[in-house]
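Summary of Year 1 activities. Much of the first year was spent building the evaluation harness for sequence design. The harness presents a backbone, in tokenized form, and records the residue chosen at every position. We chose the following record to illustrate the format because it has been used consistently in internal testing since the harness was completed.
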């Protein structure tokens, strides 16, 4: 064979190899996105994130425990404590809808319940705290007996809670 024949054979083989390489090569790259499509993607992402945060905030507000003052009892003028302040017993109902999720091992931590605050704050936001978890009683039927030694919280069911004056006198 002469040198011309060899060259033709080499070119044919070369063409076959080039063709085979194109078959397994990666597909051509996508064209770069235009400014409008990138902006649209960012807007959609921002709307999705804002909606998710809105749902989270709404769920938190709806499921957060709410407190309602049921009754308040003021100290009678005949009873005077060492701090010469007027004290109040405030009965509150705590509505805790998140309790249905049972997120805590403590089965009573989030349940609807009643609380009593004794102290100088007539709103019941600050003072000596007593949580009422007794069953078979209606806390709304609470009566209060004031004495210089302390306060008795009495319920129709016969339950009685005594809070010594030292627990709520002096701003506690």
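For this record, the design step produced the sequence shown next.
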């Amino acid at each position: 064979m002469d040198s011309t024949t060899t060259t033709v054979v080499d070119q044919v083989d070369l063409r076959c190899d080039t063709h085979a390489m194109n078959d397994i090569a990666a597909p051509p790259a996508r064209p770069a996105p235009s400014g409008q499509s990138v902006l649209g993607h960012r807007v959609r992402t921002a709307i999705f994130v804002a909606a998710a945060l809105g749902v989270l905030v709404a769920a938190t507000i709806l499921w957060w425990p709410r407190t309602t003052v049921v009754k308040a009892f003021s100290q009678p003028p005949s009873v005077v404590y060492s701090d010469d302040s007027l004290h109040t017993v405030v009965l509150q109902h705590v509505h805790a809808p998140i309790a249905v999720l049972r997120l805590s091992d403590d089965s009573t931590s989030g349940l609807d319940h009643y609380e009593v605050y004794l102290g100088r704050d007539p709103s019941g936001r600050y003072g000596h705290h007593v949580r009422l978890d007794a069953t078979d009683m209606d806390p709304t039927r609470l009566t209060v007996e004031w004495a210089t030694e302390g306060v008795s919280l009495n319920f129709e069911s016969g339950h009685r809670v005594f809070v010594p004056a030292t627990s709520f006198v002096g701003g506690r």
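Strands lie at 66-74, 88-95, 113-119, 128-132, 143-147, 150-154, 160-164. Quantitative recovery figures across the full test set are reported in Table 2.
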